[in-house]
Design brief:
The protein is an alpha/beta fold. The protein has a single domain, classed as Transcription Regulator spoIIAA, CATH 3.30.750. It is about 40% helix and about 30% strand. Strands 1-2-3-4-5 form a five-stranded mixed β-sheet, with helices on both faces.
């Protein structure tokens, strides 16, 4: 499940990531929200807060990869909070393809992650 968090504002979107992600999570929640922000702001900062995440369905994994590659230059910052090791590893692997900044935070560092994602520069 993907849930847009209340702290979402301007070019910053917060997303709670829980359970197993589906195609609907991407098509009905995440992609429309990010495309709306990109249309208004031109770029986006994303904070992903992991809470009981258990992976992706195959179609959702494809959605994630295709959308991420298509918009990789539009992400100015990406913060992962409490992500499993394999998700952090994937972010580090693909970070060189993104001109924006990426950073991982422990589960108990959500406040620090919000401060970082909202900071200038």
């Amino acid at each position: 499940m993907l849930e847009i968090l209340d702290q979402t504002h301007g070019d910053v979107v917060g997303v709670k990531v829980a359970g197993k992600l589906t195609d609907d999570d991407y098509q009905k929640v995440l992609i429309p929200k990010i495309e709306d922000i990109l249309e208004r702001e031109g770029s986006v900062r994303i904070l992903m807060l992991f809470d009981g995440f258990s992976g992706w369905e195959a179609r959702a994994a494809w959605d994630d990869a295709v959308f991420g590659l298509k918009h990789r230059k539009d992400f100015t910052r990406l913060a992962l909070v409490g992500a499993p090791d394999y998700v952090e590893w994937g972010m580090r692997l693909f970070a060189p393809l993104m001109p924006g900044q990426t950073k991982s935070f422990a589960s108990d560092q959500a406040a620090e992650a919000w401060a970082w994602i909202k900071a200038d520069g």
